[in-house]
Amino acid sequence: MATGQGSALRILPDDASLQLRPASPADHDFLRHLFGRIRGDTFVAAGLTSPMLDRVLDQQFRTQSSGYSTQYPDALSLIIVKGNQAIGRLLLHCASQRWHVIDIGLLPSECGQGVGTKIINAVEAAARERSATLLTLIVLAGNMAARRLYVRLGFIEDGESSPAHIEMRKHIAR
Question: How many domains does the structure of the chain reveal?
C-alpha cells in the first residue's frame, strides 16, 4: 500500500516489521556491503584474492551506481528495514503508467523468508493506487530463485534484454 503527502510516495509492506525509507548518503557503506554480499560470489569463483576482490567490487559498485543514476535520475532509492536494521534496497522508477523495479536486493540471510514477496506486493499496491498499469523488471538469467519468485507473483518473461538478463512484466489489474 502507498500513501503520500503531495507527490511524496510511501510504499508500505503488509508486515509491521518491514518498512522502506529513503536512502541517504549515510547508507553508502550499507549499500556497498549489500552489493558485496550479493555479487561477491560471482567474483570469488574467479579466484580473486581478498584485496583484489574488494577493489573489483568497489569498482563494480561505483559503475552500477553511476549507471543507475544516469539512466534513472529520478528513481526512488529506498532502504528495506526490518526492525531497526537495514536488510536490503529497492531502486524504483515510477512513471505514470509503468513502474520499473530497477534493482532489489536483500542480505542473503533475509532471502527465502518472504521479504521479497512482501516488498514486490507493496510496490504493486502502490503502483495500482497511482493508476499504473504495468510493473516491469530485469533479472539475471541465471538467478533462478528470483525468476521463480517473480513468476509466482504473476510476472511473465518477455525475453532477453541481453544474454545475461531476462525482462519480465506484470500487468496490474485495477
Answer: 1
127-152 per-position pLDDT tens digit = 999 999 999 999 999 889 999 999 99
Q: Is the residue at 10 inside a domain?
A: yes
85 located within any domain: yes
* pLDDT at residue 2, rounded to an integer: 41
Give residue 8's domain range.
Answer: 2-22+74-171
pLDDT score recorded for residue 6: 34
CA angle 136, 59, 39 (to 5 degrees): 50
Closest CA to 127 of 8, 6, 9, 30: 9
Whole-angstrom distance, CA of residue 127 vs CA of residue 114: 20
